[in-house]
Amino acid sequence: LSLWCGFVLIVTGSITAREDTFERIKVLALAHVLRSRQEPGCLLHSVHIDVEDPLRLVFVEHWVDEQALRKHFNVHESGKFVRDASALAAETPEMTIYAAEPVTI
Amino acid sequence: LSLWCGFVLIVTGSITAREDTFERIKVLALAHVLRSRQEPGCLLHSVHIDVEDPLRLVFVEHWVDEQALRKHFNVHESGKFVRDASALAAETPEMTIYAAEPVTI
């Protein structure tokens, strides 16, 4: 990964809540977003509601490099968020990491 | 771009509506998503509402290659959606294209 200078890391993920846990997960997710945004190397961190599934929260994150993202994963509050949100979720949360470079076509 | 076999193209974009245009843009956006998903080479096309800004719609799209994305941009209804949504938006819509490869860290 260190070979790919110029790339950013894009992380996308989703958590689907139950009707009775949506508001709680949303509060946890927003706190996670606001906290993560302050971490070194975080270029973007945001959470959205799927228009087709109002119980599904979708995260989009941009990180400058692998080191920054590793640090983020190792922050205590990051782990606590994942555990707390997973316990409230309707299904196992998903996450994918991409090495990405802006292009024009 | 053709050198980067294994990559997908990720498109992210956003449209911020006005209070009086949000519902109309949301309907147009969802129709655009459902139509685009049927196009050759579309791996993902979805639209979400920013938790921090309920007037902001955020799109995430995955396309197999540049050719598929070019075709998508040239579909008449794609252009009409962009024009119609832009006319209703509070500010100029944003869009970025990334060449992206899934990685594990």
Number of strands of chain A: 4
| Straight-line distance between termini of chain A | 24 Å
Oligomer: homodimer
Query: Major sheet of chain A: order of its strands?
Result: 2-3-1-4
Helix content of chain A: 25-40%
Topology overview:
2 copies of one chain form a homodimer.
Chain A (H helix, E strand, L loop, with lengths): L7 E9 L5 H15 L5 E9 L5 E8 L2 H9 L1 H13 L5 E10 L2
Antiparallel strand pairs in A: 1-3, 1-4, 2-3
Helix pairs in contact in A: 1-3
Written account of the structure:
Two copies of one chain form a homodimer. Chain A is globular and about 45 Å long. Chain A contains three helices and four strands, in the order E-H-E-E-H-H-E. The model of chain A has no long low-confidence stretch (mean pLDDT 95). The two termini of chain A are 24 Å apart. Chain A has 105 residues and is an alpha+beta fold. In chain A, a hairpin with a 5-residue loop joins strand 2 (42-50) and strand 3. A four-stranded antiparallel sheet of chain A has the order 2-3-1-4. Chain A has helices at residues 22-36, 66-74, 76-88; strands at residues 8-16, 42-50, 56-63, 94-103. The relative contact order of chain A is 0.30. The interface between A and B is medium-sized, with 31 and 31 residues. Strand 2 of chain A pairs antiparallel with strand 2 of chain B, so a sheet runs across the interface.
